[in-house]
Amino acid sequence: MEQTEVTHASAGIKPIPINFKMLSLTVVLFATGIAMIIPFLWMITTSFSSPQDVFRFPIKWIPSPIVLDHHIKVWTGNDSFVIYYLNSLKIALISSLGAVLLAAITAYGFSNIQFKGRDVLFVFYLSMMLIPPQILFVPQFLMFDWMGIYNTHWALILPNLFTIYGVFMIRQFFLSVPVDISESAMIDGAGHFTIFFRMMLPLAKPVLATFTIIDFSWHWNDYERALVFLIDKDLFTIPLGLQSFIDVNYIDYNSMMAASFAAVLPMLVIFMFGQRFIIEGVSSSAVKG
Fold it and tell me: What PROSITE patterns does the record point to (predicted)?
């Protein structure tokens, strides 16, 4: 032992200090993460299990045999998720793309265009986030009924095009871009239209991708607004379709878990491929307040 310590000392190797506080925090976070993911894993396992294995204890995490009938029922039964998927994709894609474009234009105006009362107007604009969206359901219902778009997807798409959070998030990024860039472009004869589309938008790709993912997930999981403004079953989105499926199959736990897995699967795929943009976008938009 003494020879080993001397050898290490002579080689100039220093022992690595152990940060017990960080180690303890890591263990706690890891245990918390495992506890949170167990119900999700049980959902997936149950969706591929036979009915007699639903309440089996200890849990059989790898089903044997693997049963696909419940997933087939979700996609081909009376409450087929195909129409729900198409409706949710239509609403979420149009809403997200429109919201990102309008939010970017508004954020550019609040960050790069000087006009009287700009900061006061922006504070007032942000204060609208304090208003619960449920308060607006009644006036929106009356307005949409008058416009003739109640019980249509436009009743969900139009309000989704305007987002205060998106304007704030993108504006924070635009404020972090050096002013010299836009001023140099103006000296060269470029207007705000050219600066916005050819300079600011390419620079803002991380934050735009981040907000697109976040906004898409909001619209995909929107249950309350769809419940208020949609009546016809052919117009139902994924949350309403899932609730309708559960109401019919309330004792078929395997099929309910298969339907839940189908509802959450797109969000998992988007997060797996977009988590890099989320981390980069959130950090970049927080550079300057």
Answer: ABC_TM1
